[in-house]
Amino acid sequence: MSIPEPWSPSSWKSKPIAQDVAYEDPAHLAKVLSKIERLPGMVTPSEIERLRHQLAMVQRNEAFLLHAGDCAESFDACTHENLSNKIGLILSFSLILIWGARRPVVRIGRIAGQYAKPRSSPKEVIDGKEVLSFRGDNVNGLDPNDRTPNPERLLSAYFHSTTTLNHVRGLLTSGFASLHHPRDWSLNHVRSPSLRKEFENIVDNLSDALDFSRTIGVESGPAFEKGGARGTVGEVDFYTSHEGLMLEYEQALTRLLPIPAGISVPSASGNKTYYNTSAHFLWIGDRTRQLTHAHVEYFRGIRNPIGVKVGPSMKGEELVRLLGIVNPEKEGGRVTLITRYGAGKVAEFLKGHIQAVQESGHPVVWVCDPMHGNTLTSSTGLKTRNFGTIISELTSSLRIHAQCNSRLGGVSLEFTGELADDGFSVTECLGGSMELSEDELGLRYQSFCDPRLNFEQSLDVAFLISNYFKN
Ligand code: PEP
Ligand code: MN
């Protein structure tokens, strides 16, 4: 085995890079980055280590992972209402899982930093004019006249992330997440009566159980306390994540910090190691996971738990080599594989990937992303996804894992609790128990990136998973 080259937060710069952003003024970029380097980190080593610990529990079948949020956040959507609706949906979804599947749920939001987007083409034609593609609010503007990458947007991304995280931390420590008030998480716009009833049943049963516990004097402590992993943000654990695409930004927030007491880090030479303090969890996208390229190089050196998107073009031996690079010590909780093949391809690829990883002895958490392989264009030209194919990829994944003596540890979803101005849920994906049709898609289509499941369609998915694990 060859000895790995030394790593540093900037060693990725000597490698080829996919999805690079070309800035016109490098001095301006350098100035912004040096400012970000001096700003405080957003998350702490002990929170990051706690998430690693909890992901190791997911891998051992002791908990379930919910990774969810928008395809891309926007600066404009950073409002009290949007963030509260988002957190409300994540809490409702996890309550259904906890209640039905009777296991703790690790919640990681695609939130507080999910701004950058990889694109299939660097340019696009709008109204007959060729412009640079929109790369996310931290790079350029959605407006076709504002497509030149502007470094100031990285700083704005930092501040929008901190504002978001501050609001989320506040919400979760102020009783919003309390199991005594799940109705506050907003069910008003769920139009299917059976779905409402199912959720309300859980809430009623839960209230009874809580009353009973209170009567007999049992304390209701956090579900993870037993594992030495206490809540991150008050009453419930909640973690942040984004795709680690803009490596200059990630590097600026990578800090050499003391390793919390009781944690052993095999690769560390002293009592410090490199943490990426921009989020608890970062993932490598399907377009930037080349073994010898910059993103994999950057990711191998950070201590955070990481995700790797795995699509149909990944070869089994390539996947095992990638695991060898980012997790040479085969540590549990370090790598989550997020598979995204499409309903029509999952049967062809998942089994081979599971078997290759099993033979390698690498511990991983397997997560199904049933969104990204199932995107289509509606007859009216809108980018959409069909609820049926999302469920089909998810149920196939559950079945294939069971057949391979493996286990699906979680789901990765693009969903939103966001409401349109008229107070109704967005209409971006087809089907679900609300039976959203093609002509309804245009009514409240708000995503400027990938289509998201709305509140009601998301609860449908939660019940499906919860029922699977109940049986
Ligand atoms: C995403 O998660 O929004 C995304 C772009 O996914 P992928 O890298 O799997 O295409
Ligand atoms: Mn997406």
From TrEMBL:
Annotated PANTHER family: PHOSPHO-2-DEHYDRO-3-DEOXYHEPTONATE ALDOLASE, PHOSPHO-2-DEHYDRO-3-DEOXYHEPTONATE ALDOLASE 1, 2
Q: What is the recorded name of this protein?
A: Phospho-2-dehydro-3-deoxyheptonate aldolase
Keyword field: Amino-acid biosynthesis, Aromatic amino acid biosynthesis, Cadmium, Cobalt, Manganese, Transferase
Q: How is the cofactor bound?
A: Binds 1 divalent cation per subunit. The enzyme is active with manganese, cobalt or cadmium ions.
Q: Does the keyword Transferase apply?
A: yes
Enzyme Commission numbers on file: 2.5.1.54
Q: Which reaction does it catalyse?
A: D-erythrose 4-phosphate + phosphoenolpyruvate + H2O = 7-phospho-2-dehydro-3-deoxy-D-arabino-heptonate + phosphate
Gene3D superfamilies documented for this protein? Aldolase class I
Q: Listed GO molecular functions?
A: 3-deoxy-7-phosphoheptulonate synthase activity
Name the pathway it acts in: Metabolic intermediate biosynthesis; chorismate biosynthesis; chorismate from D-erythrose 4-phosphate and phosphoenolpyruvate: step 1/7
Could you say which residues bind Mn(2+) here?
C71, H372, E414, D450
Q: Does the keyword Transport apply?
A: no
Q: Which InterPro entries match?
A: Aldolase_TIM, DAHP_synth_2
Sorted alphabetically, the Gene Ontology BP terms of this entry are: amino acid biosynthetic process; aromatic amino acid family biosynthetic process; chorismate biosynthetic process
Top-rank EC class of the record's enzyme: transferase
Q: Which cofactor does it need?
A: Mn(2+); Co(2+); Cd(2+)
* Positions annotated to bind phosphoenolpyruvate: R110, K309, R340
Family, similarity comment: Belongs to the class-II DAHP synthase family.
Q: Name one Pfam family in it.
A: DAHP_synth_2
Coiled-coil ranges (or none): none
So which domain of life are we looking at? Eukaryota
Q: Give the organism, scientific name.
A: Mycena chlorophos
